[in-house]
């Protein structure tokens, strides 16, 4: 029997994530979600900024965020969807957080006052070092030897989605409902009665594939294919028992990184042959990006 087409987008794809949370008309969805995970802070409004950031020196590496926005009080939010493990992921998060810190530097006489920076990672994998823990929400701050917050303007927040396993009848909080959306949206045929709040009514309307333009539909299909390619590589490797140590990071992270590199090189109008040499991707795959 042929499988019926999905009614709603997968929010873990690049297209799906940015469609729901990375556009001005839908920023109320992002605000509602962020207000559930950022402690002691309520966002009333925010503005999207460029997601590409460069260091001060030519040799500095470039950072490309999924979503980068600035709140009405000038606080900075980096929001990223990470589909597969990669080596030094926490290091990468710290590195990325340095860009919104550096950009606040003012020319001339400046007193070094900084606005808060929040780095948020929505992870479609579990940290190896936290596999035995039940907690799937991690909020990290800079603390001193007495576990007292030493600096409260830099926070890292990670959500390990695979650890969330509640069913519809078990959803107790608004945060539970958001995680259920992330993990089940593409499998649903209709909006569950447990998700009747106004924000979810809008989300389900935005996520309905039938309402997409032809261009949006093609972009989503390509994004979904890339997502499935990454998942298939990871799942196959796990099944065959080959994902260990360095091999694990290499298998799970290489394809995603190469796709992103190819996408950026293509934006810079680099020749297809050069992109192939740098990434190992096929000409057909690169042309579709």
Structural class label: alpha/beta
| Rg from alpha-carbon coordinates | 20 Å
Number of discrete helical segments: 9
Order of helices and strands: HHEEEEEHEEEHHHHHH
Low-confidence stretches at least 5 residues in length (pLDDT < 50)? 57-61, 243-248
> How would you characterize the largest beta sheet?
6 strands, mixed
Q: Please count the beta strands (DSSP E, at least 2 residues each).
A: 8
End-to-end gap = 32 Å
Notable characteristics:
289 residues; alpha/beta; six-stranded mixed β-sheet; two-stranded antiparallel ribbon
Describe it.
The protein is an alpha/beta fold and 289 residues long. The protein has a domain of 79 residues. It is built from nine helices and eight strands. A six-stranded mixed sheet has the order 1-4-5-6-8-7, sandwiched between helices. Strand 4 and strand 5 form a beta hairpin. It is globular and about 55 Å long. The protein starts with 13 loop residues before the first helix and ends with a helix. About 4% of the residues have low confidence.
């Amino acid at each position: 029997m042929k499988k019926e087409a999905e009614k709603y987008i997968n929010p873990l794809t690049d297209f799906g994530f940015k469609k729901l949370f990375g556009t001005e008309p839908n920023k109320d969805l992002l605000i509602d979600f962020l207000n559930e995970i950022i402690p002691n802070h309520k966002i009333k409004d925010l503005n999207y900024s460029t997601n590409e950031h460069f260091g001060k020196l030519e040799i500095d590496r470039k950072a490309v965020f999924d979503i980068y926005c600035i709140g009405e009080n000038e606080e900075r939010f980096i929001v990223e969807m990470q589909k597969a493990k990669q080596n030094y992921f926490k290091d990468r998060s710290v590195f990325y957080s340095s860009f919104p810190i550096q950009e606040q530097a003012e020319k001339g006489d400046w007193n070094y006052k900084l606005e808060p920076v929040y780095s948020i990672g929505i992870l479609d994998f579990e940290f190896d070092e936290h596999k035995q823990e039940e907690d799937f929400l991690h909020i990290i701050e800079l603390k001193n030897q007495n576990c007292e917050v030493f600096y409260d303007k830099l926070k890292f927040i990670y959500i390990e989605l695979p650890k969330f396993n509640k069913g519809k009848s078990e959803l107790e909080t608004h945060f539970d409902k958001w995680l259920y959306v992330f993990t089940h949206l593409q499998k649903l045929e209709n909006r569950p009665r447990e998700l009747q709040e106004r924000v979810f009514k809008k989300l389900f309307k935005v996520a309905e594939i039938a309402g997409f333009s032809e261009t949006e539909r093609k972009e989503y299909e390509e994004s979904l294919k890339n997502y499935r390619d990454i998942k298939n590589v990871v799942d196959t490797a796990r099944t065959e028992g080959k994902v260990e140590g360095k091999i694990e990071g290499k298998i799970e992270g290489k394809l995603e990184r190469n796709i992103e590199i190819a996408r950026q090189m293509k934006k810079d109008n680099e020749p297809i042959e050069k992109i192939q040499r740098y990434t190992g991707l096929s000409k057909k795959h690169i042309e579709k990006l």
